[in-house]
Amino acid sequence: MNIYQLAIRPLLLNLTKKNPEWAHTTTVRSLNWLSSKSLLNKPLRQSLCLDDARLEQNLFGLRFPNPVGLAAGFDKDGVATPIWGSLGFGFAEVGTVTFHAQPGNPRPRLFRLELDNAALNRMGFNNLGAADMAARLKDLQHSIPIGINLGKSKVTPLEEAAKDYLDSFRLLKNCGDYFVVNVSSPNTPGLRSLQDASMLGAILELLQQENDSHKPIFVKIAPDLEWEAIADIITLAKTYQLAGIIATNTTIRRDNLKTQVIEQTGKSPTEEAGGISGAPVRDRSTEIIRYIYRQTQGQIPIIGVGGIFTEEDAWEKITAGANLIQVYTGWIYEGPWMVRRILQGLLGKLEENGLNSISEAVGLEVALLPPKSTPHAISRQSQETQWLPNSGGL
Ligand SMILES: Cc1cc2nc3c(=O)[nH]c(=O)nc-3n(C[C@H](O)[C@H](O)[C@H](O)COP(=O)(O)O)c2cc1C
């Protein structure tokens, strides 16, 4: 255990228990301030970063110094982009940004489920809008790839979703290294219905027409999709020449949670709307990564995200087929040294397995297993009626 885990984390968790969103906003503001004082970057970098050629990869035309990225939702407005590389990340995804600025859902909307190493959020894409982000990122140079995660504005009807994504992409297409079509947040009404092949196809068609400089475009999917729906998305990824798939967003499932009551509201997690992140989503997201890797014979890059806290979790996702991984909830719980610890652990795993680079580990475990039949589909009815409390209210 390091000093952060022994002393600072318990203190921070206690101080911020009642209002984790305040803790989050303060962290992002502080990081923004640190970004502006570039003098602080060097010492920070030395203690938090791990540079090793074995961790580097060149994927979809971009160089990733290591495979651990910051997941979307932490830096929603891209206010701290210069600092993420100095904190050890190999890439960072900003957003979700929407074309129209919007306040998100009423507070409280972010809860820690400490017993479960999890969080429950229903932020609802609070952000300053695509034009604001474009103005901020326009002339910035970054040491690591920066992805921009796009969502649908709440005021835009679902039928006009494709145009809404296009309007954001037009403003931002020269500001990011890769782009993500986020159709998987549970906190914007109807958003996940855009994962249906026809709706998603319409969005991807428009974006690729506009994509004159051939920026890599990803789709980020929900862990609660049926296998057939994931297979449809794989087909779309091929049709529209996507760079890859990000698996996964938060889950609307509530099974096997230890937390009985959320302190801030006095209600159980089953009574609170929103998506669960962290340990409870880990296995399902790994299962989906493995499925996509198998179905595509490893031909479509995968960014794996969901419940990564340790090097074991990271190794599991990479050997299941993820070329890159992202962290959010784990980073909150484990603190800023987590990235370096994971990278150190991954180097150890490479040595144990006699591998020379992280790219050799991608899909290793899948290649070694005999092919399995497609798991049974999860019934759509059980997803909608059992796992999504208060869904109508969001
Ligand atoms: C507070 C919070 C806000 C999030 N906001 C977004 C978002 O705006 N866009 C998005 O694509 N994912 C968002 N996510 C999902 C994460 O990017 C990630 O997919 C998910 O949390 C699983 O990873 P984790 O278990 O490491 O947290 C959010 C997650 C949390 C906890």
TrEMBL record:
Substrate binds at K76, N121, R122, M123, G124, F125, N182, N187, N249, T250. It is found in: Cell membrane; Membrane. Binds 1 FMN per subunit. Residues 379-394 have a biased composition (Polar residues). Residues 375-394 are annotated as: Disordered. FMN binds at A72, G73, F74, D75, K76, T96, N149, N182, K220, T248, G278, G307, Y328, T329. InterPro entries: Aldolase_TIM, DHO_dehydrogenase, Dihydroorotate_DH_2, Dihydroorotate_DH_cat, Dihydroorotate_DH_CS. PROSITE patterns: DHODEHASE_1, DHODEHASE_2. The active site is at S185 (nucleophile). The keyword Flavoprotein applies. One of its GO terms (biological process) is 'de novo' UMP biosynthetic process. GO terms for molecular function: dihydroorotate dehydrogenase (quinone) activity. It catalyses: (S)-dihydroorotate + a quinone = orotate + a quinol. Pfam families: DHO_dh. Pathway: Pyrimidine metabolism; UMP biosynthesis via de novo pathway; orotate from (S)-dihydroorotate (quinone route): step 1/1. Gene3D superfamilies: Aldolase class I. Its EC number is 1.3.5.2. NCBIfam families: PRK05286.2-4, PRK05286.2-5, pyrD_sub2. Catalyzes the conversion of dihydroorotate to orotate with quinone as electron acceptor. Belongs to the dihydroorotate dehydrogenase family. Type 2 subfamily. Monomer. This is Dihydroorotate dehydrogenase (quinone).
